[in-house]
From TrEMBL:
Family per record: Belongs to the P2X receptor family.
InterPro entries: P2X6_purnocptor (IPR003049), P2X_extracellular_dom_sf (IPR027309), P2X_purnocptor (IPR001429), P2X_receptor (IPR059116), P2X_RECEPTOR_CS (IPR053792)
Catalytic reaction equation(s): Ca(2+)(in) = Ca(2+)(out)
Gene Ontology biological process: calcium ion transmembrane transport; response to ATP
Any matching Pfam family: P2X_receptor
Keywords carried by this UniProt record: Cell membrane, Disulfide bond, Glycoprotein, Ion channel, Ion transport, Ligand-gated ion channel, Membrane, Transmembrane, Transmembrane helix, Transport
Sections of the chain in a coiled coil: none
Membrane topology of this protein: Multi-pass membrane protein
Entry's localization field: Cell membrane
GO cellular component: plasma membrane; postsynapse
Name under which the protein is recorded: p2X purinoceptor 6
Domain of life: Eukaryota
Database matches in PANTHER family: P2X PURINOCEPTOR, P2X PURINOCEPTOR 6
Organism: Fulmarus glacialis
């Protein structure tokens, strides 16, 4: 193990208990303390070699990926109103989805997004994000007034940068002709898209509106009676109000 790993430093075999992992290291201790160089001794480990190479390219290896497209298909359903809507344009043209690209003004019903456009909408450049990876949040917002035509119920898209670094490791294992076990370890950098959908809908209902209207009228009628009672029996000038409200006939 490299002497840059503190837990791997040793002076005798007792410093390297067999079976213990090297903290922040690359393997399991064999129980032996070995000379790493003329000045350092480190614990021998069971591990894959060579260890991971942390050097990175200076530019994205697949720069053309900025022109890749992402097809996001989303359907929203408001159960209270028995209303469903899809974000794709209902068309009989089989070539439409092969040629269209989303544009918020000229083509808002096309669900095909170019990667570079999504990254730029999140405030980043593709070259910077593709080198070390990153995470982009895609928010789909449905805000529908169902009193209008269903064609006016359209999703709104927004993009946000969640993380400037994103990578993961994967390995493939195989045996050679001498039955020795080998592996290929890959550390992959990429752009991850996290999609979330939010929505709300409203519609005017005749019966609840009629109930509220009737309740309001009844409330104002009750308020009139209450005011009369106060002015006729509790107010200091009740006699004056009584004479103005009622006319005596003799």
């Amino acid at each position: 193990q490299s002497p840059s790993v503190l837990d791997a430093m040793c002076t005798e075999d007792a410093d390297c208990p067999m079976g213990n992992p090297v903290v922040r290291g690359n393997g399991i201790k064999t129980g032996k303390c070995m000379m790493f160089n003329t000045t350092h001794s480190t614990c021998e480990i069971y591990g894959w070699c060579p260890v991971e190479n942390n050097t990175l390219p200076r530019k994205p290896l697949l720069a053309e990926a900025e022109n890749f497209t992402l097809f996001i298909k989303n359907t929203v359903h408001f159960t209270k109103f028995n209303f469903s809507k899809c974000n794709t344009l209902q068309t009989n043209d089989p070539t439409y989805f092969k040629s269209c690209t989303y544009d918020p003004f000229f083509n808002p019903s096309c669900p095909i997004f170019r990667v570079r456009d999504m990254v730029e909408a999140a405030g980043e450049t593709f070259g910077d994000l593709a080198l070390l990876g990153g995470s982009i949040g895609v928010r789909i917002e449905w805000d529908c007034d169902l009193d209008h035509s269903a064609t006016q119920c359209q999703p709104q898209y927004s993009f946000s940068l969640q993380d400037r670094r994103y990578n993961f490791r994967t390995a493939s294992y195989y045996w050679d002709s001498q039955r020795r076990l080998y592996r290929n370890l890959l550390k992959l950098y990429g752009i991850r898209f996290d999609i979330s959908v939010h929505g709300q809908a409203g519609k005017s209902m005749l019966f609840p509106a009629a109930v509220r209207f009737g309740t309001s009228i009844a409330f104002f009628g009750a308020a009139t009676v209450f005011c009369d009672l106060v002015l006729l029996y509790l107010d200091a000038k009740a006699d004056f109000y009584w004479k103005e409200k009622f006319e005596e006939v003799r």
